[in-house]
Specification:
28 strands, seven-stranded mixed sheet, disordered N terminus, alpha+beta, six-stranded mixed sheet, 45 helices, mitochondrion, single chain
Length: 1243
């Protein structure tokens, strides 16, 4: 080392004692120090004394501009005297103890670490080495090591690893020297290469000699030893050594010993150290096997249970939980195949598509449990684990996804299809050529009023019981349309009924031919027998008489929800009529469930001796039940809901085609939903709820005899999905439109595992659920576990609850979905996801959504759903009712855009205002109105999109002045449901093609994706005739964020986020794309501008939003995302979202369009300058805090209890899930550019 020249800092007195001594030390050359050892000792001793006694001396040595550190290190390097070396080490120890971080950094930058290693190697060669010197060297290295990033590499290259290990082997009983050696070893082991090298050198075995049973002595040494061992065991090679050395049982024994003896919990860190060692070992398969064989599950379960009452021991409980979950044997889902239970044969299967891959798998290999060590997910300690870790990992990948090709960031100049090919779509745009010359504007009013006179008469629905009914209670329904085959109870035929033909030759059930015999003393029965218990009507084809027609409609269970009683009912009770709101329905009455098309006898549900419980699978005995009953009048929801009509809904169901040929109607869809008037706040998470649920799951393995594992519902048993039992189990059903529940297993008396069905022609996409439960007991808490969820995170961890609909409540005048469930959490479980279903990724697991609930009514029928259901038949009913609202001033046309794969019609609506007259001026204004193109429900599970669309449609058809102005301003083209097949069949994501339709917009297939193909063709036609829409908006739902927000497309913002070089001409674009979301943020309380993003990503290039922007040239092309959970800002902050708020959002979208019209028509471009200021302001702030507006941290606060759902960053997330916009609300800086009204919404 070159001899440094002593320098002093300005302001430091030149006569400073310590600086004078350092100058003297500096003047002693290497040889002089060797010759004059005594002087060197004296000088270093005096310097040490000054630093120890005078704080200012240390500051003078370490002050900026001082070369004191260089002089000290030079002297240390040149010293050959042990005492002088020790003095200098003492000096360094004193200097680095105070102001440690900065001083250690200076020490490292001056090469101090290398000099210490050099002295260590030299000293280790002396026999015996100086104990004091080794002690000071390792103490100093322990201070420096964590601050030197290259510490491990330097140690390995210098040979210091072996020196430290040899010293430890020679001093196992010398705790004073062993402690600093272990501290240094702990730092060595953080380097993976060092850890492997140390393992080869026998250090793992050495460490197991150091750790010991419970003792009050040497606890600091044991803590450091466990830390070092834990670091070593992160290496899989060392973990295998530990397993081979049979150390797993030893670790468990030691942990249990400390657990039992540390009764005052003073040594929690030591106990956790043992657990960390075990946790690192079980990262390999051999380690997990050894843990199970050593009865580790029982040991940790019992010890953790004892720790639960002590809150300070949570780190032990959490780490034990991770270990037990990791070691819980990976199981397959209890299914014969992970493919959908329903099969639909496609007209053709694309060779490269997901369906071809699905069906190319050999039988029996579609669900493979993989336990490869190489693909195990690493789980952070629960107390430090958060979803933010996933986002931090995703920041770089998110930036990689941003589109950087400028050619793709500008609309295409040439059209891809010729106009001649698109001219067939001219028929969908009659309004662009209509001249209204033959239209009588005077007589249209009477014609319109007569066409809407078919609305339902205001009256209650009569619910008959076993008591006879008079004809005045007969609901009037004209049954027509196609029916679907169904299953019913096998009953004896009447004498007048001929024997039906065999099932194979049976035609579809004709609803208008159901023949019924009514008896005064017995319940009504539909006589449609078949040998296998399947109801048919092949022999009943003669036109019914008037009396028969009355009987049919009496039997029509859709109108006559039968409430039966086992014994005789008090006659006085029978004539009371409708129950008062708030009073429970009589607990002895039994509700039939579910509603069946055509009056087919329904299943009995509920308890009581002699009742036929549960099944319709060819069971006998339904016709021997009798007794007197009462008549209850169910409130007519048509009076409460302007667009709901139960009779009309039934008619619509008849024309709906499903793959399973559903013949049942769910009560909620029939009765309708009246939004509750009370608020439903976000659920506060109970501390420890996830942990307690996980422990209950672990009990299944520890106490397997306590688990019933009884199948109570199974769609894979096509002939009889509802399993008969003794009445001790709940009854489940999902065989109705939009239903999704594949299997239900009773695991404990009041606990059920539920398995969802995958999308048809798919083996994944499990999220949407909608099913019926009956046979419950009042006051009992039931736990439901949906065990095959796929998302790595869920709003169920952040206040969202499931939805429940009670039929008893509906009958009592409260037909509504309500948020319900307690102890809700979402976490990774022990069911392995097949790599086939996980995109080739191995080692993935499913997730469990668990919730508990109580039922208020005996013999109730309740429904649970992921979100407010909105079926395809509901849409058809709403559209029919909307048509009845049309006035002479409204131009409304409903076309059939196309027919889906499943045979359902996809409606296309055109809404605008009628011209004032057929004069040229009025016709010209009518034809030249800008177009607004809206679509929704491309993803079936995002039912909130349909509720928003309902709000939009109702507003557009409304009588308000704003609605009239909006119709006069625009022509609306609306496809309210892009994926009817997916909705009907209970899919979450896909259509019958097994593909996400919102990923098919670039090249839709006419046969496989007809709705996307024709919708895109409509837009292409408009682009060809120079009438591209002013606004395109696709309504979606978002499962992982709160509020309502938009995604748009901007060249400028994408370029800014990707940091690619671009010329000013490349960045020129109209800033109007921000106007609509900006307006919404000012008028819609649920809307959050801060969550919006306008970045274009590569992974989204085939979505509607990007394709319409890029290929059609629509600048204002959006995806509007509505939360499935609730809001964390504005008027609805802290509340779960409901249908009222969603419909309001749809209406506010219309109001925003009206304001947009006024804004763009006044030719005042000041607002565009304001918008540019918004963009620049947001950009400069967002970039500084996060590299992308595409992915930012989850917008959720951390809980007192850390959530360990082991988020996986590689999950394939669809647009409505993965487009996490920039959430800037948390940073007050990001609110600077918002308007006053917007700020008010956020208060």
């Amino acid at each position: 080392m070159n001899k440094p020249k002593m320098a002093t800092e300005k302001g430091v007195p030149s006569n400073s004692r310590v600086l004078m001594l350092l100058g003297q030390l500096e003047r002693m050359s290497g040889e002089a120090m060797l010759k004059d050892v005594e002087t060197a000792r004296q000088v270093t001793s005096k310097i040490l004394h000054l630093i120890q006694t005078q704080e200012k001396s240390g500051k003078e040595v370490m002050s900026k501009g001082s070369s004191g550190m260089e002089v000290i290190l030079s002297s240390l390097e040149n010293s050959r005297d042990v005492q002088t070396t020790l003095n200098i080490l003492y000096i360094l120890s004193e200097l680095l103890t105070v102001g440690r971080a900065r001083r250690v950094a200076v020490f490292v930058s001056k090469g101090g670490t290398g000099i210490l290693f050099q002295i260590l190697n030299t000293a280790s060669k002396e026999l015996p080495p100086s104990e004091e010197l080794m002690l000071q060297l390792h103490s100093l290295l322990a201070k420096v090591g964590p601050k030197d990033r290259k510490f491990g590499v330097k140690a390995r290259l210098s040979g210091a690893l072996n020196a430290t290990v040899d010293l430890m082997k020679q001093n196992l009983q010398n705790t004073k020297l062993l402690l600093p050696c272990l501290q240094v070893l702990r730092v060595y082991s953080t380097n993976s290469v060092n850890a492997i090298s140390l393992g080869k050198n026998g250090v793992v075995e050495l460490m197991f000699k150091i750790i010991a049973p419970y003792s009050k002595k040497n606890t600091s040494l044991l803590k450091v030893a466990l830390d070092a061992l834990g670091a070593l065991l992160k290496s899989k090679t060392n973990a295998r050594r530990a397993v081979d050395g049979r150390h797993v049982p030893a670790l468990l024994t030691l942990y249990l010993d400390w657990h039992r003896n540390d009764t005052r919990h003073r040594h929690m860190l030591i106990r956790k150290g043992f657990l960390v060692c075990i946790r690192n070992i079980i990262n390999i398969k051999l380690g997990r096997k050894a843990f199970i064989e050593a009865d580790g599950m029982r040991i940790l379960y019992n010890s953790s249970t004892e720790c639960l009452p002590v809150r300070t021991l949570d780190p032990l409980v959490n780490t034990s939980s991770i270990i037990m979950r990791k070691c819980f044997p990976k199981n397959r889902l209890p299914l014969p195949t992970i493919k959908s239970a329903f099969n639909y044969q496609l007209p053709h299967i694309p060779a490269a598509g997901p369906v071809a891959q699905l069906y190319s798998q050999p039988a029996g290999v579609d669900d493979v449990v993989d336990e490869s060590d190489d693909n195990d997910e690493t789980e952070a300690d629960t107390e430090n684990d958060s979803e933010n870790e996933e986002d931090e990992k995703n920041h770089s990948s998110a930036n990689d996804d941003i589109e950087t090709d400028l050619n793709k960031l500008h609309p295409k100049k040439s059209q891809s299809r010729p106009l001649e090919e698109l001219r067939v779509y001219e028929r969908f745009f009659l309004e662009l050529s209509e001249d209204f010359q033959g239209y009588n504007f005077e007589s249209s009013k009477s014609a319109s009023s007569s066409s809407s006179s078919s609305s339902r008469s205001p009256r209650p629905i009569i619910v008959p019981t076993a008591q006879s009914l008079s004809p005045k209670h007969v609901p009037k329904l004209s049954s027509q349309g196609d029916g679907s085959s169904t299953k019913g109870q096998h009953t004896q035929p009447p004498p007048s009924a001929s024997t039906p033909s065999p099932p194979a030759s049976q035609p579809p059930l004709e609803l208008n031919t159901v023949h019924l015999i009514k008896d005064q003393d017995k319940k009504e029965e539909a006589h449609i027998p078949s040998p296998d218990g399947h109801a048919t009507l092949s022999s009943l084809t003669s036109p019914p008489s008037q009396g028969q027609r009355i009987e049919q409609e009496l039997a029509h269970v859709l109108e006559c929800v039968s409430l039966e009683e086992e014994g005789a009912l008090n006659e006085e009770e029978g004539i009371k009529g409708v129950k008062q709101a708030g009073s429970p329905v009589n607990a002895t009455r039994l509700i039939q469930s579910p509603l069946l098309l055509g009056g087919i006898v329904t299943r009995r549900v509920g308890g009581g001796s002699g009742s036929n419980l549960g099944s319709d699978c060819g069971s006998e005995g339904a016709d021997d039940e009798g007794g007197e009953g009462a008549v209850l009048e169910v409130p007519d929801t048509a009076l409460l809901l302007s667009l709901h009509d139960p009779d009309l809904y039934v008619e619509m169901v008849k024309g709906t085609h499903s793959v399973p040929q559903y013949a049942e109607v769910a009560y909620p869809d029939y009765f309708g939903h009246v939004a509750p008037t009370f608020r439903e706040p976000l659920m506060e998470r109970v501390y420890g709820v996830q942990r307690s649920k996980i422990f209950q799951d672990i009990e299944r393995m520890i106490h397997p005899n306590d688990i019933l594992d009884k199948v109570v519902y199974d769609l894979d048993i096509l002939s009889c999905p509802v399993i008969e039992d003794d009445g001790e189990s709940l009854k489940f059903n999902s065989q109705f439109e939009s239903g999704n529940l594949r299997k239900a297993l009773q695991v404990r008396k009041y606990e059920y595992d539920l398995v969802l069905n995958s999308d048809i022609n798919s083996n994944h996409y499990h999220q949407w659920f909608y099913f019926e439960v009956s046979g419950m007991r009042v006051g009992t808490t039931y736990r439901f576990n949906i065990i095959n969820s796929e998302k790595s995170n869920s709003q169920f961890n952040y206040g969202m609850q499931v939805l429940m609909y009670s039929v008893q409540e509906a009958i009592s005048g409260r037909p509504r979905w309500v948020r319900t469930g307690s102890d809700i959490c979402y976490y990774k479980n022990h069911f392995a996801r097949s790599s086939i279903a996980a995109g080739g990724q191995k080692g993935k697991s499913y997730y469990t959504l668990t919730f508990s609930t109580n039922f208020s009514h005996k013999d109730d029928v309740c429904y649970f759903a992921y979100h407010y259901p909105y079926t395809y038949s509901t849409l058809k009913m709403h559209l029919s009712k909307l048509e009845a609202l049309r006035t002479t001033k409204i131009y409304l046309r409903q076309d059939v855009l196309c027919e889906t794969l499943g045979g359902n019609r996809c409606p296309l609506l055109t809404i605008t205002a009628m011209p004032e007259s057929n004069s040229n001026d009025h016709i010209c204004q009518f034809r030249n109105r800008p177009l607004i193109f809206l679509s929704a429900r491309v993803h079936p599970g995002e039912t909130n999109a349909s509720w928003v669309m309902k709000g939009t449609l109702e507003f557009l058809m409304g009588t308000s002045s704003q609605a009239a102005s909006l119709r006069e301003a625009y022509i609306f083209k609306i496809v309210p449901m892009l994926n009817p097949d997916g909705v009907v069949n209970g899919n979450h994501r896909c259509s019958l093609s097994g593909e996400d339709l919102n990923r098919q917009w670039q090249s839709p297939n006419l046969e496989l994706h007809p709705t996307i193909f024709h919708t895109k063709s409509l837009l292409q036609y408009l682009a060809h005739i120079q009438r591209a829409p002013l606004v395109f908006c696709d309504y979606h739902g978002h499962s992982r964020k709160k509020n309502v927000f938009m995604y748009g497309c901007s060249v400028k913002e994408t370029v800014w986020q990707s940091n690619i070089s671009a010329s000013s001409s490349d960045l020129q674009e109209d800033l109007g794309y921000r106007a609509l979301p900006k307006i919404l943020s000012q008028i819609a309380p649920a809307f959050s501008m801060g969550s919006c993003s306008f970045v274009v990503e590569r992974s989204k290039e085939s979505t509607a939003r990007v394709v319409v922007w890029r290929e059609i040239g629509v600048q204002r092309s959006y995806t509007m995302e509505s939360t499935l959970c609730g809001c964390d800002q504005g008027k609805y902050k802290g509340l779960q979202i409901g249908t009222r708020e969603l419909e309001e959002m749809g209406a506010q979208f219309c109001v925003a369009l009206l304001r947009l019209k006024r804004l763009t028509s006044i030719r005042n471009h000041q607002h565009l300058l304001d918008l540019e200021g918004d963009i620049i302001g947001t950009q400069t702030k967002v970039v500084s805090s996060c590299p992308s507006t595409y992915v930012m941290e989850e917008d959720e606060p951390s809980f007192l209890e850390a959530i360990d759902y082991s988020a996986e960053s590689n999950d394939e997330d669809p647009e409505a899930e993965n487009e996490l916009g920039s959430e800037v609300l948390k940073n007050p800086e990001h609110l600077d550019h918002l308007s006053d009204s917007e700020m008010n919404h956020r208060d």
